[in-house]
Amino acid sequence: MALRRMLGWALATLLGLAPTAQAAEELRLGAFLSLTGTYTFMGDPEKKALELLVERTNSTGGVLGRPIRLIAYDDGSDPEKAMTAAKRLIENDRVDFIIGGSGTPTSMAVLPLMEKAGMPFVSMGGGIGIVEPVRNWTFKIPHSDRMGAEKVLTDLKRRGLTRLALLSENVGFGKSGRDQVLKLAPSMGIEVVADEIYGPKDADVTPQLTKIRGTNGVQALFVFGTGQGPAVVTRNIRQLGLDMPVYQSHGVVSKEFLRLVSGAADGMRLPAMALAVAEQLPANDPQKPVALAFKAAFEARWHQEATIFAGHAADAFAMVTEALRRAGSADKAQLRGQIERTKGLVGTGGIFTMTPTDHLGLDLGSFHMVEIRNGDWVLVD
User: Fold this and answer.
1) Residues 267 and 297 in one domain
2) Does pLDDT of 347 surpass 60?
């Protein structure tokens, strides 16, 4: 019943059918996003998703009869600028809650500030360190790097591939992802026989790939990174004619990545959220109508792809606004408590159930394994 109520509200909000309420004092939604810099491909669709949902929510009466005002700053993909933006949102703009941190580094930078300020904060960074250890005021939307590692390792094991080469980015999501792969692999019967790194701005990674190709007995390659780096790696893989199964992380799930590699990624596998393959989901999948509704609304408003990063923002917005409705006020302590009580919230990335010991609230079943075929995602699991 709770799940159906959440699903019904999500669809009603997207389709403009939510109950009308009278205007009142505004609710202030603060956001710091990477609108420029390394993580622009995340921050731009996130801001557009928030703008869309604020517009639609306000057009139908707001939340608790109060309109939402979005106050968003560009952190330039820089942790120090993220700190400055978050401090400004808390101290100057006096926001009621914050959604932000397009990437792991910018999210991690603000955690002590959020805890000290007692600010309800929902991050869109991928690193597991954002919510482990659990922090009182911090929650997270995207599947973690640990979940991405586990999903890929599970698929490798199913295919009988047990000798893995790892090529990871040396910062943020890629660095944390490498740690998770190395931690999980032994317990899953996978041996990491090559362990190479690259920088997010490297123009060529053929030396690392050449080492991997020369490693005795390597059966598959796992590239862990996000942004432009994995596209460079992918092109280099094809230029070298590297002939082995290749996996990417969920940090590259966007059509922009596919455009950057121009077919070079065909045959590669990666974990992805429901939004990326919404049309291919079974008819009885509860995420299908939510993902399709958001996709249609976003693409009609902005005339561009509804990426998983837009979906992260949509899920964060739904989580906070539903918690506000249950709390009955914008009192920060009550709002924090209700976010932690989120149960059965159907989003574009999964079905969220938070607890005092789990501030992510997703399980591995909300991940889908996809293969890139003819420049598009094809659901394989």
Assistant:
1) no
2) yes
In a domain, 377, yes or no: no
DSSP for 150-181 reads HHHHHHHHHTT--EEEEEEESSHHHHHHHHHH
Q: How many helices (H) and strands (E) does the chain have?
A: 12, 14
Average pLDDT over residues 341-362: 96
Check whether residue 199 and residue 312 sit in a common domain.
Answer: no
CATH of the domain at 232: 3.40.50.2300
Res 10: pLDDT: 52
In a domain, 369, yes or no: no
Q: Structural domain of residue 307, as residue ranges?
A: 2-143+279-364
What's the pTM? 0.87
> Length of the chain in residues, anyone?
381
Compute φ and ψ for 12, nearest 5 degrees: -60, -40
Does 321 share its domain with 244? no
**What mean pLDDT is predicted for residues 149-158?**
95
Distance, in Å, from the CA atom of 27 to the CA atom of 44, rounded to the nearest integer, reads: 23
Query: Would you place residue 13 in the very low, low, confident or very high pLDDT band (cuts 50, 70, 90)?
Result: low
Q: What sign has the CA pseudo-torsion 249, 140, 104, 278?
A: positive
Residue 344 DSSP symbol: S
pLDDT at residue 293 greater than cutoff 70: yes
Number of domains making up the chain: 2
Q: Which positions ≥6 away from 196 have C-beta within 8 Å?
A: 165, 166, 167, 168, 208, 209, 211, 212
